[in-house]
Amino acid sequence: MERILRVGVIGANPNGSWGSVAHLPALARLPQFRTTAVSTAHIETACETAKHFDIPNAFADPRSLATHPDVDVVAIAVRVPAHKELVTIALDAGKHVYCEWPLGKTTAEAIALRDAADAAGVMHMTGLQARRAPAISYIRDLIAEGSIGTVREANLIHSIPWTFTGRGPSSSYLLDRESGAHFLSIPGGHSIDTLCYLLGEFTSLSATMQTLGDEAQAFGISKPSYNQVVIGGVLGNGVVAGIRLQGSSAFGIGVRLEIGGDRGDLIVTTVAGGRGIQMSDLKLQRTTATGVLEDLAIPDSYFADLPASIRKNPPLNVAKAYLALHEAITSGTAPSPNFSDAIIRHKTLDAIQQSQDEDRTITL
Fold first, then answer.
1. Is the pTM above the cut of 0.85?
2. Distance CA 53, CA 150 (A)
3. Could you give the CA distance from residue 141 to residue 135 in angstroms, rounded to a whole number?
């Protein structure tokens, strides 16, 4: 009989939080897991979520969740500034950890958490869940088998709304570069991670970034997040990559990733209404002639381990990530993406910031 892992989720407010729209629906439909506890900032909302998802234990104190004997894995789906404290609480309790991206406010925080997790001897996973998307897995296999020949170039456009008009001060941290949770780190980090997962890490890059609009100043933020980012660079296998992250549009076109080889091109786009690549269903195409595209269907085999009820996002990619974590815990192998993978991505973002600050190309 397959081992059932018991999960406690920190941060599943019933009012549309990522924990309640992705983590809990995914866990509820995976027979390998049972959600045994939930924690939010207020016991009233924790009890409401617990009732809705039939979870036996509800807490306002995350430490009570982490130390509960019926919890094997602690999932952390709260704001980035709280990650360090909550991951540490879970590690002190000796529990496996799934922490959403970004892992820490800074690379130094991420390194400290990785080292602590390794010292605790537990499995750790980071929520860079686009890597687990069936569409991305299929594209990765097509590239590996030479479907478009030798890859030469890639272009990534990430265009989503990043406006806070009408929001209250509680959301202002997303406009603050020092919060660790902003346009470059969250939507940018997920998209850049997907590009690098498919094609390799940057060996050099150059970035130009600006902040358009005055929303951050309205909240008294001294270092506002960039919402316009242009990056050019070379990946480890010689692929030339261009990235355009734009966050001031009222609507945005979503995400479009073009991968060019010497025998054709592959195109990944978010479907209508989609936003981040990590939380959207994806459409795949390939070129058959200059400017001519044909749709690619994702083979059923890439969904074979999932019940039909979670083959769409938001829960789809998170469910695939949990299955990878289950495999790692039950087999004793390292999960992916883990905290070490998160550190690599944090360092990429550091290099982008350094390029902006020093107005030069950075070699990684």
1. yes
2. 48
3. 10
Which residue is associated with the tokens 């780190």? 185
Helix (H, G, I), strand (E, B) or coil at 127: strand
Asked if 44 and 170 sit in the same domain, the reply is no
Residue 191, φ and ψ in degrees, nearest 5:
-65, -45
Kind and range of the H or E run holding 319: helix 315-331
User: 166 and 108 in one domain?
Assistant: no
The Cα–Cα gap between 98 and 86 comes to 11
Categorize the per-residue pLDDT at 272 as very low, low, confident or very high, splitting at 50, 70 and 90: confident
Q: How far apart are CA 363 and CA 360, in angstroms?
A: 10
- What would the mean pLDDT of 181-198 be, rounded to a whole number? 96
The DSSP 8-state label assigned to residue 111 in this structure reads: H
Structural domain count, the chain: 2
Residue 331 forms part of a structural domain: no
66 — alpha (psi -120 to 50), left (phi > 0) or beta? Answer: alpha
pLDDT score, position 223? 84
**CATH assignment at residue 188:** 3.30.360.10
d(CA 27, CA 7): 8
DSSP secondary structure letters along 30-79: -TTEEEEEEE-SSHHHHHHHHHHHT-SEEES-HHHHHT-TT-SEEEE-S-
Reported in sequence order, the residue ranges of 179-303 that DSSP labels E, i.e. its strands, are: 202-210, 228-235, 240-246, 254-261, 264-270, 282-289, 292-296
Give the Cα-Cα-Cα angle 200, 76, 69 (nearest 5 degrees): 125
